[in-house]
Design a protein that fits this description.
Helix content: 25-40%
Distance between the termini: 41 Å
Number of strands: 7
Shape: elongated
Structural class: alpha+beta
Largest sheet: 4 strands, antiparallel
Radius of gyration: 18 Å
C-alpha cells in the first residue's frame, strides 16, 4: 500500500490561516523549512518551537519554522451550530456542521423535513474544504474569537 495522505496544512494553507488571523498558538504541528526550499512536518506545537527559538537564537536562522494544523485540530476549532438568518424559511435557528470525506457544510432541516445547505465547501481535498470553511466562518464572524489574533 502506498498512502499519500496529507497530515497537516500545507505551507500555503498555513500562511493563509495566519493571514486570516488564526493564532499560531492553536497549531498542533510545525513545518520546518530547510534552506534548500524543502520542508518537513513534525507533530509538535508551534509554541514549543517558538520557546526553543527564544533560547537558541541561531535556530531560527538555520531552520525557519511555520505553524501547521492537523485535520483533527482544524475540525476541533470549527463551531458546531451557527445561528442562521431570521429571514430564511425555517423554524430552526441554527445551521449544523456536516462533514463528509470531501466536503464541509452547514445546513438545517426545513419545514418539509428536507435538509437545506446554508453554505458548503468542496475543494481540492478535505483539508482545502476545511480551510475554505474556516475562512468563511472568520469573515462572517462565526469563528471562535479566542482562536484569533
Amino acid at each position: 500500500m502506498n498512502f499519500k495522505s496529507q497530515i497537516c496544512t500545507t505551507k500555503e494553507q498555513s500562511e493563509r490561516l495566519l493571514a486570516l488571523g488564526l493564532k499560531k498558538e492553536t497549531a498542533d504541528m510545525t513545518i520546518h523549512i530547510k534552506n534548500d526550499d524543502g520542508w518537513y512536518m513534525t507533530a509538535e506545537p508551534f509554541y514549543e518551537w517558538e520557546d526553543d527559538m527564544n533560547t537558541i537564537p541561531s535556530l531560527e536562522e538555520t531552520e525557519p519554522i511555520l505553524p501547521a494544523w492537523s485535520l483533527g485540530r482544524l475540525i476541533e476549532m470549527l463551531p458546531g451550530p451557527i445561528p442562521i438568518s431570521e429571514y430564511l424559511p425555517t423554524f430552526h435557528h441554527y445551521a449544523y456542521l456536516n462533514l463528509s470525506k470531501v466536503s464541509v457544510d452547514y445546513s438545517w432541516e426545513d419545514y418539509d423535513g428536507e435538509e437545506r445547505a446554508l453554505v458548503g465547501f468542496c475543494g481540492k481535498g478535505f483539508f482545502s474544504a476545511v480551510v475554505d470553511a474556516t475562512e468563511w466562518l472568520i469573515k462572517e464572524g462565526y469563528f471562535n474569537k479566542e482562536y484569533l489574533i
